[in-house]
Design brief:
Strand content: over 45%
Radius of gyration: 13 Å
Number of strands: 11
Order of helices and strands: EEEEEEEEEEE
Helix content: under 10%
Shape: globular
Number of helices: 0
Distance between the termini: 40 Å
Length: about 120
């Protein structure tokens, strides 16, 4: 079955950096677009970024553009999210989400919590 396991979250000071990872299994990882979606405390889901199957193209929400970088390693079935210059408003649970390639997303990980605080 499809499994998505995020890691790398934690408590970081404003201005700091983190690298989130998502280990995927149960499907042909290299065939699918992959997303990162976040949910801040008390707020709704916010799409953050998506990467194409080969890993050459990434797209970002305006709120994170220039600070976040998505990448993937198809040999390791892993997608990454590099987060720089963290702000308090980046505090959220970050979810790795598999795209169906045709009809939205279909599988979610359990998420990893990023807390930005001094």
């Amino acid at each position: 079955q499809v499994q998505l396991v995020e890691s790398g979250g934690g408590l970081v000071q404003p201005g700091g950096s983190l690298r989130l990872s998502c280990a995927a299994s149960g499907f042909t990882f290299s065939n699918y677009w992959m997303n990162w979606v976040r949910q801040a405390p008390g707020k709704g889901l916010e799409w953050v970024s998506i990467i194409d199957p080969p890993g050459g193209v990434g797209y970002y929400a305006d709120s994170v553009k220039g600070r976040f970088t998505i990448s993937r390693d198809n040999a390791r079935n892993t997608v990454f999210l590099e987060i720089n210059n963290l702000k308090a408003e980046d505090t959220a649970v970050y979810y790795c989400v598999k795209d169906s390639n045709s009809a939205g997303v279909d599988y979610w990980g359990k998420g990893t919590l990023v807390t930005v605080s001094s």
